[in-house]
TrEMBL record:
Record's keyword annotation contains Transferase: yes
Stretches that traverse the bilayer: none
Keyword NAD: yes
PANTHER family hit by this protein: NAD-DEPENDENT PROTEIN DEACYLASE, NAD-DEPENDENT PROTEIN DEACYLASE SIRTUIN-5, MITOCHONDRIAL-RELATED
One GO MF term attached to the UniProt entry: histone deacetylase activity, NAD-dependent
Name of the featured protein: protein acetyllysine N-acetyltransferase
Keywords: NAD, Transferase
EC top class, as a word: transferase
Stretches assigned to the Deacetylase sirtuin-type domain: 1-233
Entries under Pfam families matching the protein: SIR2
The protein's Enzyme Commission number: 2.3.1.286
Length: 233
């Protein structure tokens, strides 16, 4: 692994613009569970994730939806870990980050170039009057205290489209980069996994993950991202 980390460091040093593509595996070291592992938030759920986290459930069963996200997805005391911090450091110099994560830890780490592909949990608003709602108020009730409307987090639910501006920003970042680093994601969720199609033909691709990802031309480091990013300068 040491040799591969050295090669990754060389590619980072030589790159002009780096883009990180990240998923839940980055935030597990901050105490936030992933989705589909044996300890993930989807393990043992009473209904399919596609049903629970859908716009239909949000509007038809707001209390059920609210209980699930509050119990399983909100970790307001979580702090960025060294992976977030190292990526933020690199992005401040010459990079950008596109994340599937909805926990805002990349922004909290001081990363100035974050695209939240699936939105974030703390962009909370009323679906009736569109007014923003604080986390504290949402934690207390799924209904807006001003108008009684259903309150929701600004994350992309099953059955909803990715925001077009987010897609455009993500594609532009891919087209501008000469090095792509995939981290903490199985890279099977679309359209996120489709982003690789927009990379430059000569862009180098690395994946730092506990499992192999199914994509061509990827230099893989199979291991714990915390160890890998801790070894980078």
């Amino acid at each position: 692994m040491d040799q591969k980390i050295t090669e990754l460091q060389t590619d980072i040093d030589q790159a002009k613009h780096i883009v990180f593509l990240t998923g839940a595996g980055v935030s597990t070291h901050s105490g936030i569970p992933d989705y589909r592992s044996k300890n993930g938030i989807y393990n043992g759920v009473s209904e399919s994730p596609e049903t629970i986290l859908s716009s239909e459930t949000l509007h038809q069963r707001p209390e059920f939806f609210h209980e699930f996200v509050m119990k399983n997805m909100y970790f307001p005391d979580a702090k960025p870990n060294p992976i977030h911090q190292k990526m933020a450091q690199i992005c401040q110099e010459k990079g950008s980050l596109i994340t599937q994560n909805v926990d805002t830890l990349d922004t909290k780490a001081g990363n100035p170039h974050v695209t939240e592909f699936h939105g974030n949990l703390y962009n909370i608003y009323c679906t009736k009057c569109q007014q923003p709602v604080s986390y504290e108020d949402y934690a207390a009730s799924p209904y807006h205290k001003n108008c009684g409307g259903v309150v929701r987090p600004g994350i992309v639910l099953y059955g909803e489209e990715i925001d077009s501006q987010v897609l455009q920003a993500s594609v532009a970042a891919m087209q501008a980069s000469d090095l792509v680093i995939i981290c903490g994601t199985s890279f099977v969720v679309y359209p996120f996994a489709q982003l690789l199609a927009y990379r430059r033909p000569n862009a180098k691709i690395w994946a730092v993950n506990k499992t192999e990802i199914a994509a061509r031309g990827v230099n893989s480091i199979i291991g714990d991202a915390l160890d890998v990013f801790g070894a980078l300068r």
